[in-house]
Amino acid sequence: MFTRFSALILASSLVFTGCAAQSNPDNDEDPSTLQSDDALSSFGALLVGTYKTDAAYPKFDLNKDDSYRWDSGIRCITTPCPSGDVGRWAVYVSVFTGVRYVNLRSDDGRVSRWFRVASTSKLVGAFGTTGTFTKWVKGACTTNAECAGGEQCDAGACVARALCVQVDGTDGRVVAKNFAAGQYAEANAWGETTAAGSSWGISLANCATVAADMACTEEYAPVCALTVSMAAAKTFGNRCDLRRSVIAEAGDFGESLAISTKGACVAGAARCSTFWMKSDPTSAAGAYYVKSFKSDFEAKAWPQLHPSAIDAQVLSGACHDLTICTKEYNPVCGGVRSDDASTFGNRCMFQAAVRASSATEGWSKGYIRSAGECTP
Predict the structure, then answer these.
(1) Is residue 16 predicted with pLDDT exceeding 80?
(2) Going by fewer Cβ within 10 Å, which terminus of the chain is more open, N or C?
(3) Is residue 260 over pLDDT 60?
């Protein structure tokens, strides 16, 4: 069967499949959206190995020197025999989604096969190539204990898994973060540093999967917690419920952080939480964030959810309450939200303007561009 396609990385050409099975093009991305990934020495090195389907054939080898050998399993009494082909393989990446693909192109130019990289141990046929091929290493393992950190024993092979690091801090923090398959050393280092002496662990799955499989008791030992995605603190039935929620919030690829305290959430007097974000703490320039809460816990927890926050303060009353400033003229150039920069008489007047703008939504932000009056 012949297939014609065009790509940024390959000139239009006829592709002869020989004895290898291919079907009509599937619904994957158009290969013209792909560009060469030259990281064969790093990412590509993770793909090196022998791949096969559930059946004995076909199978193929991806070698370290970027050569491949395809074995269709067909054996003949006389030669030549169409038992396979050889050529070069390369990794490509989608310019839109970042998904990686592997292309096998025979030395004679007649065969070109495409596979989507589902993981460093699984390649799925794409752009007309069919079948799912899994990296196979005979006798590599029989149990998970025989595999390195971050791997599981799967059909006799040690296979890298996505990783979910979870931290349960003695200071009330609950943290979850995803790491890609094969990044066990990075995940281990991050977990140890982030935990800072608290309990932590690594699961061999992404955080969304861990949360979906996580079971908690119905014991009622309430905790009050606030995360970046929450508008207000929430009471969880017990700490396990909180951990599950944080892990789920990290999802397939992200991370999440909660600040918690024992007991159910209790509303109190209004409080205004504020902090600065600066690339240089000694500079006048920076971003100023404010948000109104209904308890001291929330107001104190909010800056902790932003690791780069500095100069955090909790003020009595809602943020939009009147702020009295002196008339001292020590100007700064800044703006409220996305407004153009203008001159404020002093830093206090700028902060008061930002807090006043929180009246409609309960929060606001502003920025100081520089000390002194604004110049054109």
Answers:
(1) no
(2) C
(3) yes
Q: Which residues pair with residue 70 across a beta bridge? A: 60, 85
Ranges assigned E (strand) in 263-362: 271-277, 286-293, 310-316, 332-336, 342-344
**Band (22; pLDDT cuts 50, 70, 90):** very low
7 and 115 part of one domain? yes
Does the structure show a pLDDT above 90 at 243?
yes
Q: What's the gap between Cα 189 and its chain centre?
A: 17
Q: Tell me the per-residue pLDDT of 66-123, one tens digit each, with 9 for 90 and over.
A: 999 998 877 665 545 667 889 999 999 887 788 899 999 999 999 999 999 999 899 9
What are the residues facing 370 on neighbouring strands? 333
Which contacts of 67-71 are long-range, i.e. CB under 8 A and separated by 24 or more positions?
68/104, 70/20, 70/104, 70/106, 70/111, 70/113
Section 286-296 average pLDDT: 96
Burial 245-274 (b: 16+ CB within 10 A, else e): bbbbbbeeeebbbbbbbeeebeeeebbbbb
* 108 and 232 co-located in one domain: no
Domain that holds residue 171: 163-262
Task: Please indicate, yes or no, whether residues 292 and 201 belong to a single structural domain of this protein.
Answer: no
Strands 132-136 and 67-71, by their bridges, are unpaired
* Same domain? 23 vs 89: yes
Q: Note whether residue 145 is domain-resident.
A: no
Residues 6+ apart with CB under 8 A from 119: 159, 160, 181
Based on the fold, state whether residues 280 and 257 are members of the same structural domain: no
DSSP states along 223-253: EEEEETT-SS-EEESSHHHHHHHHHHHHTTT
What is the enclosing helix (H) or strand (E) of 255?
strand 255-262
Q: DSSP letter string over 149-197?
A: TTEEEETTEEEE--EEEEEE-TTSEEEEEEE-TT-HHHHHHHHHHHHTT
Q: Are residues 11 and 132 in the same domain?
A: yes
Same domain flag for 13 and 131: yes
Give 144-189 pLDDT, tens digit per residue: 766 777 777 777 777 888 999 999 999 999 999 999 988 988 999 9
Residue that the structure tokens 């499949």 belong to: 17
DSSP 8-state code for residue 146: G
CATH number for position 90: 2.40.128
Q: Are residues 28 and 98 in the same domain?
A: yes
CA distances for 326 relative to 47, 140, 312, 347, 349, angstroms: 66, 74, 21, 10, 8
